[in-house]
Write a structure and sequence with these properties.
The complex is a heterodimer of chains A (259) and B (234). In chain A, helix 2 crosses helix 3. Chain A is elongated and about 65 Å long. Chain A has a single domain, classed as 2-Layer Sandwich (Ribosomal Protein S5, domain 2). Chain A has 259 residues and is α+β, with helices and mostly antiparallel strands. In chain A, strand 9 and strand 10 form a beta hairpin. By secondary structure, chain B is of the alpha+beta class. Chain B is built from four helices and nine strands. In chain B, the strands form two sheets. Chain B has a five-stranded mixed β-sheet. A four-stranded antiparallel β-sheet of chain B has the order 7-6-8-9, with helices on both faces. At the A-B interface, strand 3 and strand 6 of A face strand 3 and strand 5 of B.
């Protein structure tokens, strides 16, 4: 791995990257495809960034609310780093990497109140809608964080409410209404990597494995920040943080156009 | 009265199919197989060193299969992520369905990992997984004597049908569900399971209908593999 990192660092010193991109340039081919599992999932989407491919699906269920929020629906994000997507991922219980990925995507959606959970209340204290967002990478060619959060966002936008049967108190999955989820803000997550003293976005797998520090920034349309996650072994100066957030806001605007 | 198929298909008629290989670039081999609304993706990693070491076989390579339904891929409720008894058994029978065509003698101490993921399900998922896995193994260049083509047959009210869908699987009067896998070149069976009550005659009929149906799947598998190599030549 050190040899690869040496190579990456040497290129970055010359402001170059393996695939010829600029340091702050995303791959050109970014696509969002809606409804990739329309029969099974209430909402689903596939995001491709270059050769990286991630699918996300939304399932809805009716369940008991949490005691401290009896009039609010529940949202849960789960990401699984499938061995299918990368020869180095292993089967077994969720790894810390997949847990972090789930939680970072969750935070972006939750903290900006993208989903109006009050509107997901069926009967206060008894029944609320529960939204499960499941994220699966199909091919890992770097930057799973940004691809996963974009896929989750797209799947939520694609989702339509199923019918709730008042008599049985259960969800009738055979009937789907035309009603979308109560969504408002749209958080876009951009992960900025620091390798030596260079900042880059949309990393390849090798670049990701060579990072010193990273910062995932979720931004809203008006440029506000709604979630942050710092990773990697190196510390950041406040100047670094400022530059990384600035870059994430700028790149977030570009990604937002794709929605 | 004889059973009429709910979606109007003929008894031996398959749902529309789609097959593509090389769908996951980071893998050594990969394939997608779609039959009706069931969508399976299979990926092959390896041959590579097998860990933990005590699982290694010094005489030949080991095949390891893993079947998984994505949490949102079920009909109705969300599927709880992670392995369960059903998925473990399917992984196991998938392995046994593929083994007869593989020559693993050149890969002592190695493992060939096959991962099958279901993106959407409408019955016949293990068969779609096996069909996709066979293509992925060929795509990975593993020596094979044949492909494997799988299809789920059913016996509904004494009528034998090929490629049952979920609505048929849930048929009120009850039905016999028979997942089958064939080695197309000699017609041998490498997967055979049954849920439900049927006669011996019906079983024989189901195998016959299944074999004929699997020939169509086989043609599509070959076509998908050829397309892949044509793509590469360009």
């Amino acid at each position: 791995m050190n040899m690869i990192k040496d190579h990456i660092v040497k290129l970055l010193e010359k402001d170059m990257r393996e695939d010829g991109r600029k340091l702050t340039e995303y791959r050109k081919e970014i696509t969002i495809e809606y409804g990739v599992s329309p029969k099974s999932a209430e909402g689903s989407a596939r995001v491709r960034i270059g050769k990286t491919e991630v699918v996300a699906g939304v399932k809805l269920d009716a369940g008991t609310p949490f005691p401290d929020t009896p009039d609010q629906g529940v949202m849960m994000v789960n990401a699984e780093l499938l061995p299918l997507s990368n020869p180095n991922f292993e089967s077994g219980p969720p790894s810390i990497d997949s847990i972090e990925l789930s939680r970072v995507v969750d935070r972006g959606i939750r903290e900006c109140h993208m989903i109006d959970t009050h509107k997901l209340c069926i009967k206060e204290g008894e029944k609320v809608w529960m939204i499960f967002i499941d994220i699966y990478p199909i091919n890992d060619d770097g930057n799973l964080f940004d691809a996963a959060s974009l896929a989750a966002l797209a799947a939520l936008k694609d989702a339509r409410m199923p019918k709730f049967n008042e008599e049985t108190g259960k969800v009738d999955y055979s009937e789907r209404t035309k009603e979308p989820l109560p969504l408002s803000y749209e958080p876009i997550e951009v992960t900025v990597l620091k390798i030596k003293d260079k900042l880059i976005v949309d990393p390849s797998v090798d670049e990701w494995n060579s990072l010193d520090a990273r910062l995932t920034v979720a931004t809203l349309k008006d440029g506000k920040i709604c979630a942050l996650q710092k990773g990697g072994g190196a510390a950041l100066t406040s100047e670094d943080v400022d530059n990384m957030v600035e870059l994430a806001i700028e790149k977030g605007k570009e990604l937002r156009k794709l929605l | 009265m004889a059973y009429k198929r709910l979606d109007g298909r003929k008894n031996d008629e398959l749902r529309p199919m789609e097959a593509k290989t090389g769908v996951v670039p980071s893998a050594d081999g990969s394939a997608m197989f779609k039959i009706g609304k069931t969508i399976a993706i299979a990926v092959v990693h390896g041959p590579r060193e097998l860990h933990p070491k005590f699982l290694q076989n010094p005489e030949k390579g080991v095949l390891r299969c893993n079947y998984n339904m994505m949490a949102f891929s079920g009909s109705g409720d969300r599927v709880r992520p992670g392995p369960n008894r059903r998925s473990k058994e399917i992984s196991y029978v998938t392995e046994k369905a593929l083994l007869p065509v593989l020559d693993l003698s050149k890969y002592p101490n190695a493992v060939i990992d096959v991962y099958v993921e279901l993106l959407q399900t409408d019955a016949g998922t293990r068969c779609a997984g096996i069909t996709a896995a066979a293509m992925a193994l060929a795509d990975a260049g593993i020596p094979m004597k044949d492909l494997v083509s799988a299809v789920a047959c059913g016996v509904i009210d004494g009528t034998v049908v090929a490629d049952v869908d979920k609505a048929e699987e849930d048929y009120e009067g009850g039905m016999g569900d028979i997942p089958l896998a064939f080695l197309p070149r000699n017609g041998e069976v490498s997967l055979l399971q049954l849920d439900g009550v049927i006669t011996k005659d019906d079983l024989n009929k189901a195998i016959e209908i299944g074999r004929k149906a699997s020939e169509k799947i086989y043609e599509l598998q070959k076509k998908a593999l050829k397309e892949r190599f044509e793509r590469e030549e360009k």
